[in-house]
Amino acid sequence: MKKTHLFLIFAALVFTLGFKCTPKIYHSAAEPIKTGAEQTDKYLSLLKGKRVGILANPTTIIGKRHLVDSLQKLGIDIVKVFGPEHGFRGNASNGAKVSDETDPATGINIISLYGKKRKPSAEDLANVDLMIFDIQDVGCRFYTYINVLRDVMEACAEHNKTLLILDRPNPNGYLIDGPIMDMRLKSGIGQFPIPIAHGMTIAEFAQMINGEGWLPNQAKCKLEIVKVANYKHDMAYILPIKPSPNLNTQQSIMLYPTTCMFEGTILSQGRGTQVPFTVLGAPLLKGKYTFNFTPKSIPGMSESPLHMNETCYGIDLMSYDIKNLRKTKRINLQWMIDLYKAYPDKAKFFDRTQSKQMGNIDFLAGVYEFRKQIEDGKTAEEIQKSWEPGLSVYKKMRLKYVLYD
């Protein structure tokens, strides 16, 4: 027998024995993220035979179907829907008051919590046995849904109702950054002593509200939580539906912790365009920047945006690589610093007198020092260093309430 044949036989024998002696290792793709709402097997038993109220908006979905429709189809008695800012159907503009109504699709009464009142009343909850909270948050102090969460928890605690939270991922869950809010600046865009980006899901935040005694008289709301399956805070999560009219792209959602700060300046952050929170500019920056955009009135998004019908010049972040933010895990302050330096009328850079809160950088930053730090020419590193030790204390406190790595 030729040596070549002997070698092939030997090689085949070694391969066969090796294959038999080595255990198989299966490399499967990571399990897909499943929201709390999608895991109906974990909460339907809690709803059967109950009169159910639900805090909901367009993000309250299972697949492509609204949760209210899905639960009704499964025989659950939804007696009342509560709507937050932008309304149950999500067609109200930023800050616009929302009225009570009857949902034409289901005939269910819809109670607005962004109109005459901010929390359910005793009358609202009289025929409700259990409340559900299921809306998509984006992980920022000035995004008002955590305020609604607190208000609903307060009402449930007052009237002895259990609150079932169907948790959803935080698309900015990787980010914990910003100054801890000075409670002297408490307002509609800041209710808690937390940083700008808090790094928590809604269910985790609810546990923090209970645990830190942030309800009146340190009351406790009875919580039931359905966790997100297969989720970690640093995971990238593409939202299946926009969480509000002006967070209409994944880019806007990821930039929001940084670019929303510009609502405290004379610069447009793109309201009145189809790319809000991904462009920054003002008319007086002509000659400093070549990129430009023109805000218009857009019903359902921004009826009267800043610098409406004026050409704004500034920065285009539509193609900015979000991986840079995920890598640094910091809010990008350099854009604020650079645009302030470039703005020719610095005395008016932080002048937004048409609004006492949304137009005030102190309320957005949550501290009085931020404005002066920018005006004094502090570097991003110097400003972020001033957020300590408060930020580190918060991160340690947060660990008591996290549900995910």
TrEMBL record:
Domain of life of the native organism: Bacteria
Pfam short name (any one): NamZ_C
GO terms assigned for molecular function: peptidoglycan beta-N-acetylmuramidase activity
Domain Peptidoglycan beta-N-acetylmuramidase NamZ C-terminal: 254-404
Segments forming domain Peptidoglycan beta-N-acetylmuramidase NamZ N-terminal: 52-250
PANTHER family for this protein: HYPOTHETICAL 460 KDA PROTEIN IN FEUA-SIGW INTERGENIC REGION [PRECURSOR], PEPTIDOGLYCAN BETA-N-ACETYLMURAMIDASE NAMZ
Protein name (record): DUF1343 domain-containing protein
Native organism: Lacihabitans soyangensis
